[in-house]
Write a structure and sequence with these properties.
Maltoporin, Chain A, single chain, mainly beta, 22-stranded antiparallel beta barrel, 48 strands, 5-stranded mixed β-sheet, globular, about 45% strand
């Protein structure tokens, strides 16, 4: 997925031996030369026993039965990215993310950042920091906001896809992303960078500092870091492909549109104003309408303040105490076109409808009033944008903090323990301006007074308006609303307010080590338990709860749950250094979790590795993973809707009063309802229009949800020929099948499947009828209803060599997608998404690229290194917006960086270019289902910025 124009480059290998050991973990984990540029402090990881992400058992090398993609600190440095999401977005295994290019129109959470493995959704990707769970950044979910992760403190990022739920628990269906922070950094690092597009916009600034020291003869370490970065965002109007609405501007204009007939059609019957506020006939939206993209963002501005502290001290070999603290504050802001208001949107405070501006309003121009008289109407329908009234764009303030306290040590030379407690909290506050519908209606209902227009507050003029504070509002023309009227309809600029809090507590204990020796080596094990408590609240202001604003009516969500877990893992090296068995090992893991919500669930995995000779290693793992429903899925309020549905048993086919009977025979399922059968026998089972209009339904959470389950399979191998030192190749097949996926069944689908399909309870239980057999409600609450399947082949190749005059590194990552499909409900049609462009409005998993490639080449010599990175996205099709499918064509993105280190690795200066050839995204209409508003393209898939230039310094003392 192309989220931002930043690219990944893998760093140079310290030696063929170290490279080979690292690549066993997935073909991409590379040790780095100690004198290489921006060398990380993790060179010692190639020595002694270590713990690989995806397992809790320490082992002597990085071999594992599941592929582990490793992104090092040097990789991150070569991208020039301040936000770690921009680095991860280029991994072929990562799908479309929640990001600053896709959240401008979100009600809350603007500018948040997530990671989404295999396009199965961010809620099915588990994020860890130093192998431990991290507090969610999106309330009601388990999704971590990557804005809270300090990029310059990251030692490496391990990415495991599939087979991780048995080791780490729920949410690891698609895999795990583990951020390893450098807790042994020594010295002082100062880093600064500036970024700007070649058009002079989209600026970004970053400054950071990391300081660390060891003490007590190396038994203690403390590391402090702080950073500030500001991405100023990018306006839609600043790129030619998104500068204007496509194909048509909005008819809700800043000067107003007035139609006595209510048709708002161009011509003499519809009125508007020119730029000089002269009344005129409405011609078209493109002439008289509003360009919404002038106000919108392609990418939101995000400002971040991050601080971290890591410390550990070895009291004795049996006890090392450690602690971590992270604090993150981020600010972001959306930008929406001013609120569009129509007469049909308004109601009075008592709930009665607002028919339009009363003809008694003296502010109505004479020409329009005469047209009203001619048309025989006494209320004037209108459409107008609220430019001179308020700004409805969101302003977001988020804070996250997390503390860890633990103790670990050796119980014996081969037995180790680790016990820790972590507490994390997220606070999210979103505010924006709003119009209060009843006040707007009051202000439009004006009459002539002795000194000008006044609100009709007496019972004779308007029984609905008894607000003495009312101020008449003039919406006829540009900038005609007075400050007093704007204050009245916005309640003196009162803000809507959303405040959310997330709290997470985790207590974990693990004992690991070796039990006894097998022919291939010691039998490794890990056993332990974990307790976790999650709590989330989302609180909207009262006006939003009651639907008094012209925005969405939204309800609060509150909930919590706890889970107690026990786990065990074994790694058994069966043979070693035998003919055709250079090594053979098997491994397994099981985890039992007892949730306060869904009860007991099991996860497990079984895997094996076989190396017939040192050059080739085969590996595989099969697992069952789980995901428990989150707080939002369980406890979000059930909101009332009034769906436009047709009862399959209605013998007038939903046509209402006076319509002819179009269906004379009922299905067996309809006849099985006694009241329907009796009505049909007595003249027909039919609905009046009033009955149709009162059918309601509820959407929202369901406390009776069960867990999702998934079967995952990974089979592959690693080729490391001794005759080609420095070369490695890994190829892995993956398959993930998710069952009982949480989602909703459409209300009409429930009706159709219940009465004309198989009549399963999963559909029929959503339907409520009265004692006459007529529908009263059709619900669409969360259910365990769907299934997903993805499969593909991951290929990774790396070559590193040292020439007399230079060092060369090459790395390639390639994912070939074989299948991406989903089924919304049992027995329903399967949606094939292979080769399809992402559709944010129709529930696709993400863009189904058949091929995604990320390649990097680095040439280093005499204190200078040059890196070139390429991302390839294969062609996909959009067949949703027209009868003729449209293909995007293949997309190639190129990035480059030059790094100068004239005095060694302690002082680095670098220059970089992202999207070197200024590749533009494919363009679609604003009405297309693949288009994010304001972008004219798939904003989570393609680069929106164009060519970006950056320069920075990185000093170490």
């Amino acid at each position: 997925m192309r989220q931002f124009p930043n690219r990944q480059a893998l760093f140079r290998a310290v030696s063929p031996v170290a490279t080979a050991l690292a690549l066993c973990a997935g073909g991409v984990a590379h040790a780095q030369q100690a004198d290489g540029p921006t060398a990380p402090a993790d060179a010692q990881e190639s020595q002694g026993d270590i713990v690989v992400t995806g397992s809790r058992i320490a082992r002597s090398d990085l071999a594992a039965s599941v592929p582990v993609a490793v992104v090092s600190s040097a990789d991150i440095a070569r991208t020039g990215a301040a936000n770690i999401q921009d680095v991860l977005a280029d991994l072929p295994a990562v799908g479309q993310n929640i990001s600053r290019t896709s959240t401008n129109f979100s009600t809350t959470g603007n500018g948040q950042a997530s990671v989404n493995l295999r396009s199965l959704g961010s809620s099915r990707t588990l994020v860890l920091v130093n192998g431990r769970r991290y507090v969610a950044g999106i309330p009601g979910t388990s999704i971590v906001d990557l804005n809270t992760i300090p990029t310059d403190l990251i030692k490496r990022v391990d990415v495991v896809t599939g087979g991780a739920s048995a080791v780490y628990g729920s949410e690891a269906i698609a895999g795990v992303v583990n951020f390893i922070l450098d807790d042994e950094f020594v010295g002082l690092r100062l880093h600064g960078q500036g970024t700007v597009s070649d058009k002079g916009d989209a600026p970004r600034q970053l400054v950071s500092a990391v300081a660390g020291a060891s003490f007590a003869d190396g038994r203690g370490h403390i590391v402090l870091s702080g950073s500030y970065d500001f991405d100023h965002g990018l306006r839609s109007r600043d790129r030619s492909f998104s500068a204007t609405d496509n194909p048509n501007r909005s008819s809700f204009s800043a000067q107003g549109l007035f139609s006595p007939s209510g048709t708002f059609a161009p011509g003499a019957g519809t009125f508007t104003y020119d730029a000089l506020n002269n009344l005129k006939q409405y011609q078209s939206a493109n002439i008289d309408g509003y360009n919404r993209n002038f106000d919108r963002y392609l990418a939101l501005p995000v400002e971040r303040y991050l601080g971290s502290a890591l410390a550990k001290f070895e009291i004795a070999p049996a006890a090392t105490v450690y602690g971590e603290f992270q604090y993150a504050k981020s600010k972001s802001q959306s930008s929406l076109e001013p609120q569009a208001v129509a007469s049909t949107d308004l109601v009075y405070a008592d709930g009665s409808a607002f028919a339009g501006i009363p003809i008694t309003n003296p502010l109505i121009p004479t020409q329009i009033r005469n047209a009203m008289v001619t048309a025989g109407v006494t209320a004037l329908p209108f459409r107008r944008r609220s430019n001179d009234i308020f700004d409805r764009s969101n302003r977001n303030d988020r804070e996250t903090w997390r503390g860890v306290a633990g103790i670990r040590g050796d119980l014996s030379p081969t037995l180790h323990y680790d016990v820790y407690y972590t507490h994390g909290e997220t606070r999210d506050v979103t505010q924006s301006g709003t119009v209060y519908g009843p006040n707007y209606a009051n202000a439009l209902n004006a009459v002539a007074g002795p000194n000008g227009p006044v609100c009709a507050i007496n019972a004779d003029a308007n029984p609905n308006n008894n607000d003495a504070a009312c101020v008449p509002i003039n919406i006829f023309g540009f900038n005609t609303v007075s400050a007093a009227a704007a204050a009245y309809v916005t309640r003196n600029g009162e803000q809507t307010r959303y405040e959310a809090r997330v709290k997470q507590d985790v207590v974990s204990a693990t004992v690991s080590g070796d039990l006894f020796r097998l022919p291939g080596g010691p039998l490794g094990f890990a056993i332990g338990g974990e307790y976790r408590h999650e709590k989330s609240t989302e609180d909207f202001d009262e006006a939003t709860n009651l639907g008094l604003t012209l925005g969405n009516q939204l309800s609060d969500t509150r909930g919590s749950y706890n889970v107690k877990e026990a786990f065990i893992e074994l790694n058994a090296p069966i043979l070693k250094d035998k003919p055709f068995f250079h090594s053979l090992s098997i491994e397994g893991a099981a985890r039992y979790a007892d949730y306060s919500t869904v009860g007991g669930v099991w996860s497990w995995k079984a895997g094996a590795e076989w190396a017939p000779i040192p050059d080739i290693r085969f590996r595989g793992v099969y697992s069952q993973a789980t995901r428990a429903p989150n707080i939002s899925e369980l406890y979000s309020a059930q909101n009332e809707t009034f769906p436009a549905v047709i009862d399959p048993c209605d013998q007038r086919a939903g046509n209402g009063d006076g319509a002819p009977i179009s269906v004379t025979n009922l299905s067996a399922a309809c006849r099985a309802v006694p009241a329907i059968a009796a009505a049909a026998a007595g003249g027909g089972f039919v609905y009046s229009t009033a009955q149709i209009q009162t059918i309601n339904g509820f959407t929202g959470g369901n406390p009776n949800l069960r867990e999702e389950t998934a079967k995952t399979l990974t089979l592959g191998g690693v080729f490391q020929p001794r005759f080609a030192r420095g070369f490695s190749l890994s190829v892995d097949y993956y398959q993930i099948k998710v069952e009982n996926a949480i989602g909703i069944i459409g209300q009409q689908t429930s009706l159709d499947e219940c009465y004309t399909g198989g009549g399963e309870a999963i559909f029929c239980n959503n339907i409520v009828r009265d004692n006459t057999g007529h529908l009263t409600s059709v619900n669409a609450i969360n259910l365990n209803t769907g299934s997903f399947e993805v499969s593909g082949i991951d290929t990774q190749a790396q070559y590193s060599t040292k020439l007399p005059f230079a060092k060369i590194d090459f790395n390639l990552r390639w994912t070939h997608l074989l299948k991406q499909e989903q089924t919304s409900y049992p027995g329903g049609p399967t949606q094939d998404e292979l080769g399809q462009l992402d559709c944010y409005a129709c529930g696709r998993l993400g863009t189904g690229f058949r091929d995604k490639v990320n390649a990097s080449a680095t040439l280093g010599f005499d204190g200078v290194s040059v890196n070139w990175r390429v991302n390839y996205l294969s062609s996909v099709v959009d067949d949703l917006t027209s009868a003729t499918p449209r293909r995007t064509g293949d997309f190639w993105y190129h990035d480059a960086q030059v790094r100068f280190e004239p005095l060694g690795t302690r002082y680095a200066f670098y220059l970089g270019v992202d999207n070197v050839f200024d590749k533009k995204p494919p363009i679609f209409s604003d009405t297309s289902l693949v288009t994010f508003p304001g972008t004219q393209t798939s904003a989570t898939t393609y680069d929106l910025y164009g060519r970006l230039l950056y320069a920075g310094v990185d000093f170490r003392f």
